[in-house]
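This part of the workshop introduces the protein records we will be handling. A record pairs a protein's sequence with a compact description of its fold. Comparing a sequence with its tokens is the quickest way to learn the format. The record below serves as our worked example for the rest of this section:
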Amino acid sequence: MAGKTYNIQKIDEKSIALAAALIRRGELVVIPTDTVYGVAADPTNPEAVARIFAAKHRPAQKAVQVLLPSLDDLPRFGLSLPAPLDKLARAFCPGGFSPICIAEPGCPFVTVRIAEDEHFTHTQGIRIPDSAAALAILEAAGPLATSSANRSGDASAQTVEEAAEELGDAVALYLDGGPTPGPVSSTVVAAEPDAEGGVAILREGVISHEKLKSVLQNPTKR
């Protein structure tokens, strides 16, 4: 990819409006978050979500989370947090906490995962980023299906240049918000009634197991 140029723009009102328009057209846009850069698409558009998998060379069985501006948006999109994830979400959202929600039949996201599970059959991972830039993009574009802006197996991108080097012209627009706090991604947690504390950590990231355990034992701590 050396010598190639891509559509990289600083974040401002004009570039955010362009990002929203591209996402509505089914294109991919790379955005900064409070952890690492992410590649984003319309979560209601199956072709757009497929582009995330193709750009990243991501295995089809892997899940894709959805970024939302607030936990208050969950009912609007047919999502709910099972206990004790609701308690953890109140402590760690916005931030690097990615809970696995229950998805109702009316959920519009094509990223919903369906599995033969005795507890939860339809699920969707979500995150509320603690980033003014990401929230401004979400306000303009709506919910975003998002995965880290790198090829599967490679290190997560902490700068827009690293993201462009990884994903190249598969992405229509790269929004440059400067270096992100990475390289560690969010912590992905599912409700697991049979596990200790009622949770299973699917990926430990910026929020440690110890911090989760502390909140479950004492909700006033973070």
About this structure: The CA atoms of residues 126 and 187 lie 11 Å apart. The mean pLDDT is 93.
